[in-house]
Each structure stands twice: as structure tokens, then as C-alpha cells.
């Protein structure tokens, strides 16, 4: 249990520290003005929470700091405070689950948060009274203690104590670089410090993007990509924003990994994300496996596109009840420019060969 408590302590404190070190908006309390719109894969709740009054966003940011920088210390302040810590952490994670598609991260974080709840606390969840579940368990426990032979119990508890102590010393020893990292002004997130990759450091993102941009993949059947009359059609992803009229998805704890990667790609360039060119090549061949990761292929049942390009757009939530929302738009988007230029299958031959990727052949 102390192993789990130590784990949740450093997860939360690490996340809190990397934030105040990493981004000004955590210090001037404006981060939540941006977070709902710019998080990886917003959901419909985020759409509405984004419009909360400014003081509510300040309150949210302050609450985040309280939960990540103060509440973790409750673990070491006795049984009662530890339970308060557990309850607050579970509540915090549930709020995060409701307000965004952060995959399984929050569900996973709930697990070590439960380590503060002892039998007496959890007992409240089960029916009591003669013959009910709690009563039955107590009887089983009594019989076990009476039935077990004394020497075996003693040997067992010595062995268990020794293993626990050894594990405790090991974790304490492996925690030294983790604690040094927590104290360091150049704190890193998500890193391992030993070859066995145990007792690592985890952390949420320190910085918040201020603007949401999206890469929109498009294809055309036109022979000439630069002809003004060539019709470009959008590929639609399963969850990430694309068609402004499509409602944001609600998918937690499921994780659409490609959609998540597209979020990173959008604030970098295609040179940082060569896999996106790989994907473009697959789309140029109507590759069934790649298309199974997308929600809509505009070239379904047709020849593959002659050209595929990536366009860079800026996305903002429409205002609930506003003009765009009345037109059925959840998003307002504006084109920023190209993300990668129109590519044909022939164009990609050299690129694929030099990276030893199998050259996509239409099926
Ligand atoms: C493609 O279209 C552009 C713009 O209309 C034109 O300048 C160019 O010559 C065309 N290319 C070919 C190969 O037809």
C-alpha cells in the first residue's frame, strides 16, 4: 500500500511542479482559458466548459494547483488525511475523465489513489448486519486465524516482513533520482532512471497550447493537383476535429492513437512526423488497413486519389447559441496554409525507398 501511496504522491506532485515550472499560464492562472479548446481530443463537455466565466477558469487552475501541489502531502498526515487525499484524487480524476478524452490515463491514476482506503473505509460500501457480506467475511477471517497452525503463521509473517522490507529499501534507493528530478528546476517528465525501468517519473504536460491547429488530409482524383478546378475531399478521422459540423467525440477510456498523434503533428511540421507521409502514401493506394483507422474515406469504392495533401487549419470552438452553432457548426476553422504539398504515389517512391518502407501498391 505504501508503494502505491508513494507512486500517486510523485505522479501528482511531479505533474503540479512541471506545470508551474513549465508555463506562465499556470502562474497567472489563465491555462484553463485555453485547455478545453486546445487539449488533444476535446469532447462535447469541453465545448461548453470552454465558455465558463473567467473567474471559474481561475478557480479551476487554482484547484488544480491545490490538488497537485498540496493534497499529495495529505498522504503522510495520518489515516484520516490520507482518506481525504484518496477521495479528492478520485474526484479530480473523474472530473478530468468527464471534461476530455484523455484516454485511460485518468482511469489508471485512480488505481494508486485507492491505496489510502483501508478496510474500515471500504467496508462502508458493503451491506452490514448479521448474515450479510461483511458479517460473512469476518466469520471466514476468524476461522482462518483459529484454524491456522501457529508456527506456519509465524514463518509466513517473517518471510512476508522480510520481502516487504527488501522491497521498501529497493524502492527508496531507486527513488533517489526521482526525488532529485522533482527538486530540479530542469525537471523532466516521463523518464526512466535505471535499466529495469522501474520507479520511473511520470507527469502530465507542463505547457498548454494557446491555439488549436489541425492537419486535414485531403485527396483529389484530378490529374493536375495545381489546377484551380481540382476538387479536394477531406479524410475524416474517428475522433479528432475535422468536419466543423461533426460533434466532438466522447471516447474515454478508449484511445485513438492516430488521432492523438495528429494533435502532436499539428503543432510541429511533417519533417518531425515522417509517419504522416507514410500515411499519405497508404491513402494514395487506398490501403485497407490504414483506412480502417479513419472514419471516412472520400474515395470509398472508387479509384485511389491521384494526389494527397495535408492542409493546416486553425480551429476554434463556435459559440454555443451563436450564429455558427445555429448552422450546426461545433468548430470554426480557417486555413493557415499547406502542411505538406500535394503528393502523388510516384513522388513518394524515393522517400519510401530511402526509409526502407514498403512502397504502397493499390489493392
Ligand atoms: C496544371 O494546372 C496549372 C494551373 O492551371 C497549369 O499552370 C499547369 O500547366 C497544369 N499542369 C499540367 C501538367 O497540365
Automatic annotation (TrEMBL):
UniProt xrefs under InterPro entries: LMF (IPR009613), LMF1/2_C (IPR057433), LMF1/2_N (IPR057434)
Domain of life assignment: Eukaryota
Localization: Endoplasmic reticulum membrane
Transmembrane segments: 90-110, 163-183
Residues annotated as signal peptide: 1-22
Keywords from the named record: Endoplasmic reticulum, Membrane, Signal, Transmembrane, Transmembrane helix
Membrane topology: Multi-pass membrane protein
UniProt keyword annotation of ATP-binding present: no
Main subcellular localisation: endoplasmic reticulum
Cross-referenced Pfam families: LMF1 (PF06762), LMF1_C (PF25179)
Domain Lipase maturation factor 1/2 C-terminal: 198-341
Residue stretches making up the Lipase maturation factor 1/2 N-terminal domain: 1-122
Family the entry assigns: Belongs to the lipase maturation factor family.
Function noted in UniProt: Involved in the maturation of specific proteins in the endoplasmic reticulum.
Protein name: Lipase maturation factor
Species: Bos indicus
Amino acid at each position: 500500500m505504501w508503494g502505491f501511496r508513494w507512486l500517486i504522491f510523485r505522479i501528482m506532485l511531479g505533474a503540479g511542479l512541471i506545470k508551474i515550472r513549465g508555463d506562465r499560464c499556470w502562474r497567472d492562472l489563465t491555462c484553463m482559458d485555453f485547455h478545453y479548446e486546445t487539449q488533444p481530443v476535446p469532447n462535447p463537455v469541453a465545448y461548453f466548459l470552454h465558455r465558463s466565466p473567467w473567474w471559474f477558469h481561475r478557480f479551476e487552475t487554482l484547484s488544480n494547483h491545490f490538488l497537485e501541489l498540496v493534497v499529495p502531502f495529505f498522504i503522510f498526515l495520518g489515516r484520516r488525511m490520507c482518506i481525504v487525499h484518496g477521495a479528492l484524487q478520485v474526484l479530480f480524476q473523474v472530473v478530468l475523465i468527464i471534461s476530455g478524452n484523455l484516454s485511460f490515463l485518468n482511469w489508471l491514476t485512480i488505481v494508486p489513489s485507492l491505496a489510502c482506503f483501508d478496510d474500515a473505509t471500504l467496508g462502508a460500501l458493503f451491506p452490514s448486519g448479521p448474515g450479510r457480506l461483511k458479517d460473512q467475511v469476518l466469520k471466514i477471517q476468524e476461522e482462518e486465524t483459529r484454524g491456522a497452525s501457529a508456527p506456519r503463521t509465524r514463518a509466513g509473517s517473517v518471510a512476508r516482513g522480510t520481502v516487504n522490507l527488501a522491497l521498501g529499501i529497493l524502492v527508496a534507493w531507486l527513488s533517489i533520482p526521482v526525488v532529485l528530478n522533482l527538486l530540479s528546476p530542469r525537471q523532466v517528465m516521463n523518464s526512466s532512471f535505471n535499466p529495469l525501468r522501474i520507479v520511473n517519473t511520470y507527469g502530465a504536460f507542463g505547457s498548454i497550447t494557446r491555439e488549436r491547429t489541425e492537419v486535414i488530409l485531403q485527396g483529389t482524383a484530378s490529374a493536375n493537383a495545381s489546377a484551380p478546378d481540382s476538387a479536394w475531399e477531406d479524410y475524416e478521422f474517428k475522433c479528432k476535429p475535422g468536419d466543423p459540423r461533426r460533434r466532438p467525440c466522447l471516447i474515454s477510456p478508449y484511445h485513438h492513437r492516430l488521432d492523438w498523434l495528429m494533435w502532436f503533428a499539428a503543432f510541429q511540421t511533417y519533417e518531425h512526423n515522417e509517419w504522416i507521409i507514410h500515411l499519405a502514401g497508404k491513402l494514395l493506394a487506398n490501403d485497407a488497413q490504414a483506412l480502417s483507422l479513419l472514419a471516412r474515406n472520400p474515395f470509398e469504392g472508387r479509384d485511389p486519389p491521384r494526389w494527397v495533401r495535408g492542409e493546416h487549419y486553425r480551429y476554434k470552438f463556435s459559440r454555443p447559441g451563436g450564429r455558427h452553432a445555429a448552422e450546426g457548426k461545433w468548430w470554426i476553422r480557417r486555413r493557415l496554409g499547406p502542411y505538406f504539398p500535394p503528393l502523388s504515389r510516384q513522388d513518394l517512391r524515393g522517400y519510401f525507398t530511402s526509409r526502407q518502407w514498403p512502397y504502397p501498391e493499390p489493392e
